[in-house]
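Hypothesis: this fold can be encoded by more than one sequence.
Test: take the structure tokens below, design a sequence, compare later.
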């Protein structure tokens, strides 16, 4: 049995053969999580919508791994246009309102082509108690 737990994001995953994230022990590493709406499989043309959806998708990935957004330790933000950082900041402040309890963050411009305007990658440290319980019960880590 592999110690790696693959996390997928149905409807908003990658076209490449890679998972949305991988959990190993209590660590979670994501691939780039975009602002694609999982209900439609489409990207909005509006950067504020993509920022909002990217943060929603990020939270969905962390929850699927057994954690919550409070477990996120680092976020890397990829923007097609650095002027759109203001939309990321709005979502950032909504998700992490306490200035004393925010993850580290880095933003950079990257043109990935197509309609992708905003992507995020995360590293999270998940609750070790959740992992320990799953291991003790003989089941896979959630």
């Amino acid at each position: 049995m592999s110690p790696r737990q693959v996390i997928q994001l149905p409807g908003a995953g990658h076209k490449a053969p890679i998972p949305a994230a991988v959990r190993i022990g209590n660590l979670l590493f994501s691939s780039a999580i975009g602002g694609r709406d999982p209900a439609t499989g489409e990207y909005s043309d509006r950067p504020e919508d993509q920022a909002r959806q990217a943060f929603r998708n990020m939270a969905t990935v962390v929850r699927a791994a057994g954690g919550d957004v409070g477990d996120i330790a680092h976020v890397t933000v990829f923007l097609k246009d650095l002027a759109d950082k203001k939309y990321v900041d709005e979502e950032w402040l909504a998700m992490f309102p306490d200035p004393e309890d925010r993850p580290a963050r880095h933003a950079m411009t990257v043109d990935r082509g197509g309609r992708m305007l905003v992507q995020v990658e995360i590293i999270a440290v998940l609750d070790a108690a959740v992992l320990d319980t799953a291991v003790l019960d003989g089941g896979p880590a959630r």
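Residues 47-64 form the longest helix (18 residues). Residues 4-136 form a domain with the 60s Ribosomal Protein L30; Chain: A; fold (CATH 3.30.1330.40).
Hypothesis status: open.
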